[in-house]
């Protein structure tokens, strides 16, 4: 490996030889760099047998490729052959690996399917729909008593399915995480002297859901993790083999580790074993209604025998940004004891790097931080930010710089993307769900299927032509031709006479057309050949149809790979829904195209999003998706007391539906009932409302951490705005107000 | 006349004796046996006294081919598998043993069940149990559930233990979660019910055929004398792939035969999951009086054989330590070719494979000397390869047709029309399915006009989708668009269906054959010039006929045709009976799963190993309801099956398969892999690692 200067804190981690190590890192401290380097060191030190690997476990798919390529480059630098000696997995990927090796132990056949989120959602909605039909009165029992009949009708029409399926989703996830089967849940409920209404519902829905999975020979993501755990629990010999295969386990983002993740990795590492966990408790933002908790990492670091290490320096942001982030930590540290946000953020503070550091902090820029405290309505906030963005993008000095707009929720982000499009501001929405490239491959396939489903529609065919033609590189000269041809196709009301002419009726044989527009004739003839081929392939099974189309439509390897994967995914859908027709597949592809359904493709963005690839464009993302990334300038929007509540009396909470009585957070109440049901403490009993209050506290703290994550995405410039919401009820988040005051006073973080 | 090696000559010229021939694949054993067969026939041994026994039918092909060419002496040589022989004997001596074997109606003739028909009965019996909550914790498709229960019966029969012990054996070896134990109890109930039903109705599935033969029939003097007198000369090939029960039988038969040639491949046993037992096969040497070892000749070159040895060491981890920092020079590079650069995606791997094939063919390599082998050949993979080869006009053949029966467009067309013709079955097709059917059924009809036709002629009437005539009610402009020619053909089909509806038949095969004969095969209709469609029709008819004949004693009163259609939909009737509708071009690239290639016993110049990172190269197919090893004769009851056993088995399978493949390759193996598999996951299985290691070690041993 080429010599690089390492910080002392990094060096002390890279000196690692073995054992359990817990590392707390601040944002931008170079976790990925350090962990990848550690993996490469372990591989190159010669301590591994050829069938042994360093196992790296990450939180999200996007990080997998990042780790893999970094380790590969370190190994390559050392003159060795990259690609061997390590494996990088998400927890789901790891669980899948384990289950795939012995599905028998999990009661599965080897061809079990993993249900994607979309299919799982569809099943839940269907179950909810059926359940509601016979339980209308149950719902009424939880409605606010003062709702008008119109409100009740609206709730029943628009909200109830979502509510029930949401309850089911969270209950099922909780049960699976705890290893509770529907049968066990039923048995426990039957033993109770009085019923737990929410848990009863959960039991019914869970039972139906599992039946639906069984019918489809499928497991969902939560099953996979629990099954992996139970296999490790059952089979000592297999566990030993895995321990041999992965003598070192490096875990990234350990602050978001769930109970089961910790259990699985603990088992795999063994004691004494080699397990390095890295995380930042202040960036734990995936805890709501899950068993993930930053407490796992914190307690791990305190265990006897665990080597504690810190990565406190960060070269990512300017001193001003660091100061602001640190002020937020100190503010939360110094709050009153009873304040729900007290100690919501933990020490240590972020330290800037030394001037001679390989990654020195960027300098401050004038007015680098704007905390825009003016009261703005929903749309006004959009307008203000768009104006600011326009100004910034037009400034020549910013041509080579990056900018992102980060919002708390996906829907708000999608709305903002639309807004930017209206102003013709170049926008990148890849981080929202499916990447642009993958979506455009799906779009072309969708257009073909759409035409095949309605083969006499000239409008659909004209659209297909444009999509197909635009998907290939086109020159400015070709654009008018494409428009002309598209219009000509649209005018062909008797489409069959053009696409499948009988002798003597082909409009392309028209002498006049041939002499006036030979380009059109040539273009149409070529396109028609494809159409004929595709329409002959329509009798093939859907996966083979897609593969056939892909051969004609795509040339880029990543697009072909997407088509291949889509073919497989649609084939699974076919086996789950044998009656599906072309239009159903079109709907499915449409969800991917419209970014309503996540579909991991193979483009660079799918595997490793790099903000620096989008200089001069506005990246719009949720704050969650922005984790691990950084931009020169960052806008944080909607920082009000709805998205960032603080446990204050006027705060409202997204999980407390407006139509539910007593401000109950039904999901929290349900999970509490389930917890109590399996509690060993016989004096513990369920009291309605307590879980709702606890959930408020947890949520407020998590949102404070989310704000911290947002702030620390910025290298040099940060703009924070807030809005009053649609009904004008909200004010700026308490944390934002405090920060503004501290900033105005030029306060220094001292805690 | 081919030239023979000294070992082969020795075998051909042996006196009448019992010889045990052993040697690696590709050393010329079968060739010697064929010449020996010829010599026997030439010497005046009557063909009908010769029995050639092989473990599966494909392994008999070289003998069939040779017999076709030999100038026989008037009577036919028998080529059979052990189970084929058992079935014949049970049929012949049925009255003798039917009562003893427990059949309720010994006076009536037996019905031998095909696998599909056995699945049908199993499905009929198990379905109500599933509704009662059987197999609740198991996630497996219905069709596979039925076949795995049947598998248990077959395994018990092959291993020779009573079927009533299946659950006990599975349970006693189970080391996983206790919930699974209930599943095995459920299996036992199904197995018992099925066996009881078969005995009540004179039905013989594979397991009963074997059991009745080995437990009852073979003990009768009459059958023994008949068999021993009929077959005086035995040639038993690939004995290592056969089951111990067959070996037991041969141990008794061979000492009394006039001559015998027992041929065994060393290091083979690829059908181990189907009950093959090479160790048991080796027992046959004890009843032979001559041993011949084939060691001199090999179809594979020395370097390929060296590679095989290194692969074995690598798989068994005989050498170790750090491939990462090893040199990359290799002596094996002349016989193993990886992609020049790393391929990221699965389709890129397929492109690379086909590009290489094209280059070879352009260099003059006959396509028949190329085999593309995958661990598992999904329909999509087969289709992707076939499609790419077709685009380069390179002939190919696959081990089975590219689609299952119910995915084959011509079969789909017939099945859709069958639904339409029987509205009282309440299985009327969707509009688009009928559109596809008409596209294939009516010549010159295109997809757009088929759409128009359906829109005007397939409409809801009294709440039911009904096919309408192409009559006056249809507006003139629409009639012009669809054209008179198409309308006329549609009307013929419509009228035929109308006439049929007045006198429908219960037998679906009659319906198909009449529809084909009276409409679809006529000029103006889609099957008129399409030989492949005719072949599919014939296969479909045969499938229905076999089904119909077998299910005389079926449960319930659903019309038989409807039941057949439902079974196709459920996947119970799928890809069987479909052996030969593709023209069997011999000089064509062979696309197959690696196991199939091995069991066909071909030797080729070039092999492509696809997706070598996949674990499916060596992992057995997991079956939650059964277990191939635990239910074999060799397994001690009550011994636990552990992950360690599994790994040992995996390594052993990988070793055998790589050795088997390398011995069947004369010039070069192309190893194809991509970083990400079809689903986008990384896969680095044992085969990739082992090959990687052998290649970077450069064939030099430390």
Descriptive account of the structure:
The complex is a heterodimer of chains A (751) and B (702). With 751 residues, chain A is an alpha/beta fold. Helix content of chain A is 52%, strand content 9%. In chain A, helix 4 packs across helix 10 and helix 5 crosses helix 7. By secondary structure, chain B is of the alpha/beta class. Chain B is built from 27 helices and 16 strands. The relative contact order of chain B is 0.14. In chain B, helix 26 links the parallel strand 15 and strand 16. Chain B folds into four domains: 158 residues, P-loop containing nucleotide triphosphate hydrolases (Rossmann fold, 3-Layer(aba) Sandwich); 94 residues; 214 residues, 3-Layer(aba) Sandwich (Rossmann fold); 166 residues. At the A-B interface, helix 4, strand 5, helix 10, helix 11 and helix 20 of A face helix 9, helix 15, helix 16, helix 17 and helix 18 of B.
Using brief descriptors, characterize the structure shown.
heterodimer, A: 751 residues, alpha/beta, Rossmann fold, 6-stranded parallel sheet, globular, B: 702 residues, 4 domains, 16 strands
Furnish the topology, listing elements before pairings.
The complex is a heterodimer of chains A (751) and B (702).
Chain A: H1 8-14, E1 20-25, H2 31-44, E2 54-58, H3 61-77, E3 86-90, H4 91-101, E4 113-114, H5 117-133, H6 136-140, H7 149-178, H8 182-191, H9 197-215, E5 218-219, H10 221-234, H11 236-245, E6 248-251, H12 259-269, E7 275-279, H13 294-302, E8 307-311, E9 313-314, H14 319-333, E10 351-352, E11 369-371, H15 378-394, E12 403-407, H16 410-422, E13 427-428, H17 436-453, H18 458-471, H19 478-491, H20 495-499, H21 511-516, H22 518-537, H23 542-553, H24 557-576, H25 582-593, H26 604-607, E14 618-622, E15 631-636, H27 666-677, H28 690-711, E16 714-720, H29 734-744
Parallel strand pairs in A: 1-7, 1-8, 2-3, 2-6, 4-5, 6-7, 9-10, 11-16, 12-14, 12-15, 13-14, 15-16
Helix pairs in contact in A: 2-3, 4-10, 5-7, 5-9, 7-9, 7-10, 7-27, 8-9, 10-12, 14-29, 17-18, 17-24, 17-25, 18-19, 19-22, 23-24, 27-28
Chain B: H1 6-12, E1 18-23, H2 29-42, E2 50-53, H3 61-69, E3 78-80, H4 82-92, H5 94-97, E4 111-112, H6 115-131, H7 142-159, H8 166-173, H9 179-200, E5 203-204, H10 206-216, H11 221-230, E6 233-236, H12 244-253, E7 259-265, H13 278-282, E8 290-293, H14 302-315, E9 336-337, H15 346-362, E10 370-374, H16 379-391, E11 396-398, H17 409-421, H18 431-441, H19 447-457, E12 458-461, E13 464-467, H20 476-482, H21 484-502, H22 508-520, H23 531-550, H24 560-570, E14 589-593, H25 594-600, E15 604-609, H26 643-663, E16 665-671, H27 686-697
Parallel strand pairs in B: 1-7, 1-8, 2-3, 2-6, 4-5, 6-7, 9-16, 10-14, 10-15, 11-14, 15-16
Antiparallel strand pairs in B: 12-13
Helix pairs in contact in B: 1-2, 4-10, 6-7, 7-10, 8-9, 14-26, 14-27, 15-16, 17-18, 18-19, 22-23
């Amino acid at each position: 490996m080429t010599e690089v200067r390492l910080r002392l804190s990094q060096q002390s981690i890279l000196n690692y030889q073995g054992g359990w190590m817990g590392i707390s890192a601040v944002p931008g401290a170079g976790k990925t760099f350090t962990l990848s380097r550690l993996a490469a060191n372990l591989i190159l030190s010669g301590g591994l047998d050829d069938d042994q690997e360093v196992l790296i476990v990450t939180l999200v798919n996007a990080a997998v490729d990042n780790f893999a390529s970094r380790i590969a480059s370190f190994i390559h630098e050392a003159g060795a052959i990259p690609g061997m000696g390590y494996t990088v997995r998400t927890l789901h990927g790891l669980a899948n690996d384990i289950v795939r090796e012995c599905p028998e132990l999990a009661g599965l056949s080897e061809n079990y399917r993993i249900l994607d989120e979309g299919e799982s959602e569809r099943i839940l909605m269907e179950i909810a729909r059926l359940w509601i039909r016979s339980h209308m009165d149950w719902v009424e029992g939880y409605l606010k008593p003062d709702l008008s009949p119109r409100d009740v009708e609206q709730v029943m029409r628009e909200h109830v399915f979502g509510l029930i399926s949401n309850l089911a989703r969270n209950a099922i996830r909780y049960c699976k995480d705890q290893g509770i089967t529907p049968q066990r849940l039923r048995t426990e409920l039957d033993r109770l002297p009085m019923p737990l209404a929410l848990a009863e519902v959960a039991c019914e829905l869970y039972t139906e859901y599992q039946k639906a999975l069984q019918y489809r020979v499928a497991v969902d993501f939560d099953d996979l993790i629990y099954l992996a755990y139970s296999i490790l629990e059952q089979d000592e010999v297999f566990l030993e083999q895995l321990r041999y295969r992965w003598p070192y386990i490096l875990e990234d983002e350990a602050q978001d580790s769930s109970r089961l993740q910790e259990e699985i990795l603990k088992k795999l590492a063994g004691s004494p074993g080699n397990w390095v966990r890295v995380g930042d408790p202040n960036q734990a933002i995936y805890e709501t209604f899950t068993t993930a908790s930053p407490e796992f990492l914190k307690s791990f670091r305190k265990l006897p025998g665990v080597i504690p290490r810190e990565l406190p320096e960060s070269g990512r942001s300017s001193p001003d940004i660091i100061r602001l982030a640190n002020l937020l930590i100190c503010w939360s540290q110094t709050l009153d004891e009873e304040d729900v946000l007290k100690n919501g953020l933990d020490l240590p503070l972020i330290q800037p790097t030394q001037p001679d550091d390989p990654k020195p902090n960027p300098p401050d820029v004038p007015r680098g931080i704007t905390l825009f405290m003016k009261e703005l309505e929903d749309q006004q906030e959009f307008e203000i930010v768009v104006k600011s963005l326009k100004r910034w993008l037009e400034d020549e000095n910013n041509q080579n710089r990056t900018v992102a707009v980060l919002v708390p929720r996906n829907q708000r982000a999608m709305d903002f993307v639309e807004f930017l499009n209206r102003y013709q501001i170049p926008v990148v929405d890849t981080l929202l769900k499916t990447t642009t490239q993958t979506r455009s491959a799906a779009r072309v396939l969708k257009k073909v299927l759409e035409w095949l489903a309605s083969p006499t529609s000239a409008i659909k065919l004209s659209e297909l032509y444009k999509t197909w033609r635009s998907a290939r590189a086109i020159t400015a000269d070709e654009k008018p031709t494409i428009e002309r041809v598209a219009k000509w196709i649209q005018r062909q009301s008797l489409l069959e006479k053009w696409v499948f002419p009988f002798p003597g009726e082909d409009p392309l044989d028209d002498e006049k057309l041939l002499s006036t527009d030979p380009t059109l004739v040539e273009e149409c003839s070529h396109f028609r050949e494809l159409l004929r081929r595709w329409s002959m392939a329509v009798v093939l099974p859907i996966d083979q149809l897609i593969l056939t189309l892909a051969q004609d439509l795509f040339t880029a390897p990543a697009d072909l790979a997407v088509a291949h994967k889509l073919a497989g995914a649609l084939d699974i859908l076919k086996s789950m829904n044998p009656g599906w027709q072309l239009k159903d597949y079109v709907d499915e592809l449409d969800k991917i195209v419209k970014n309503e359904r996540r579909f991991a493709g193979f483009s660079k963005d799918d595997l490793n999003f790099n903000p620096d690839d989008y200089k001069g464009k506005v990246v719009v993302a949720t704050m969650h998706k922005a984790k691990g990334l950084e931009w020169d300038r960052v806008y944080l929007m909607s920082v009000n007391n709805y998205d960032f509540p603080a446990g204050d009396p006027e705060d409202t909470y997204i999980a407390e539906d407006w139509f539910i009585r007593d401000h109950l957070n039904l999901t929290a109440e349900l999970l509490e009932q389930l917890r109590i049901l399996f509690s060993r403490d016989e004096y513990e009993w369920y009291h309605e409302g307590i879980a709702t209050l606890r959930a408020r506290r947890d949520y407020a703290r998590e949102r404070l951490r989310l704000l911290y994550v947002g702030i620390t995405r910025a290298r040099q410039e940060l703009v924070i705005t807030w809005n009053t919401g649609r009904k004008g009820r909200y004010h700026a988040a308490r944390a934002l107000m405090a920060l503004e005051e501290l900033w105005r006073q030029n306060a220094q973080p001292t805690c | 006349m081919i030239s023979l090696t000294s070992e082969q000559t020795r075998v051909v010229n042996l006196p009448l004796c019992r010889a045990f021939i052993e040697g690696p694949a590709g050393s010329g054993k079968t060739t010697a046996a064929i010449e020996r067969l010829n010599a026997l026939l030439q010497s005046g041994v009557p063909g009908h006294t010769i029995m050639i026994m092989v473990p599966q039918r494909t392994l008999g092909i070289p003998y069939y081919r040779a017999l076709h060419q030999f100038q026989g002496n008037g009577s036919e040589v028998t080529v059979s598998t052990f189970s084929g022989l058992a079935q014949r004997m049970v049929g012949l001596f049925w009255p003798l043993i039917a009562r003893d074997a427990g059949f309720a109606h010994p006076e009536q003739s037996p019905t031998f069940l095909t696998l599909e028909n056995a699945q049908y009965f199993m499905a009929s019996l198990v379905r109500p149990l599933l509704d009662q909550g059987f197999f609740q914790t198991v996630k497996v498709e219905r069709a596979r559930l039925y076949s795995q229960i049947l598998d248990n019966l077959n395994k018990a029969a092959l291993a020779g233990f009573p079927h009533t012990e299946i659950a006990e054996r599975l349970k006693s070896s189970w080391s996983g979660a206790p919930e699974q134990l209930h599943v095995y109890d459920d299996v036992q109930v199904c197995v018992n019910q099925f066996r009881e039903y078969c005995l009540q109705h004179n039905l013989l599935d594979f397991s009963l055929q074997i059991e009745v033969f080995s437990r009852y029939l073979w003990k009768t003097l009459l059958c023994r004398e008949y068999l021993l007198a009929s077959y005086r000369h035995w040639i038993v090939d690939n004995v290592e792939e056969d089951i111990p029960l067959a070996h037991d039988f041969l141990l008794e038969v061979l000492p009394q035969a006039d001559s015998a040639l027992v041929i065994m491949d060393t290091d083979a046993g690829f059908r181990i999951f189907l009950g093959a037992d090479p160790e048991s096969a080796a027992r046959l040497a004890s009843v032979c009086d001559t041993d011949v070892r084939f060691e001199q000749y090999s179809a594979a070159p020395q370097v390929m054989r060296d590679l095989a040895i290194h692969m074995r060491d690598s798989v068994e981890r005989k050498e170790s330590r750090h491939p990462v920092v090893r040199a990359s020079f290799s002596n094996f590079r002349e016989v193993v070719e990886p992609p020049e650069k790393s391929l990221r995606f699965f389709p890129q791997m397929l492109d690379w494979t086909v590009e290489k094939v094209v280059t070879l063919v352009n260099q003059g390599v006959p396509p028949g000397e190329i085999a593309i082998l995958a661990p598992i050949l999904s329909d999509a993979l087969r289709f992707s390869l076939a499609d790419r080869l077709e685009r380069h006009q390179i002939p190919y053949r696959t081990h089975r047709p590219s689609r299952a029966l119910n995915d084959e467009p011509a079969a789909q067309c017939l099945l859709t029309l069958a639904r339409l013709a029987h509205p009282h079955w309440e299985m009327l097709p969707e509009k688009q399915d009928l559109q596809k059917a008409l596209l294939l059924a009516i010549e010159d009809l295109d997809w757009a006009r088929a759409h128009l036709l359906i829109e005007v002629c397939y409409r809801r009437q009294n709440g039911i989708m009904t096919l309408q005539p192409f009559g006056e009610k249809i507006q003139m402009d629409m009639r012009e668009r669809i054209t008179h020619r198409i309308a006329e053909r549609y009307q013929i089909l419509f009228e035929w269906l109308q006439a049929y509806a007045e006198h429908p038949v219960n037998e679906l095969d009659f319906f198909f054959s009449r529809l084909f004969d009276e409409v679809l095969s006529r000029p103006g209709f889609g099957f008129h010039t399409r030989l492949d469609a005719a072949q599919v029709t014939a296969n479909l008819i045969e499938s229905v006929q076999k089904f119909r004949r077998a299910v005389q004693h079926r449960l319930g009163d659903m019309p038989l045709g409807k039941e057949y259609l439902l079974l196709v939909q459920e996947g119970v009737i799928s890809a069987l009976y479909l052996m030969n509708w593709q023209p069997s071009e011999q000089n064509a690239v062979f696309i197959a799963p690696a196991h199939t290639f091995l069991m066909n016993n071909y030797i080729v110049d070039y092999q492509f190993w696809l997706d070598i990172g996949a674990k499916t190269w060596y992992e057995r197919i997991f079956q939650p309801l059964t277990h191939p090893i635990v239910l074999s004769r060799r397994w001690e009851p009550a011994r636990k099956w552990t992950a360690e056993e599994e790994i040992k088995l995996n390594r052993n399978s990988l070793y055998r398969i790589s050795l088997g493949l390398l011995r069947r390759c004369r010039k070069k193996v192309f190893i194809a892999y991509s970083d990400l598999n079809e689903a986008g996951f990384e896969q680095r299985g044992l085969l990739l690692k082992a090959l990687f290691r052998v290649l970077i070690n450069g064939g030099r041993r430390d």
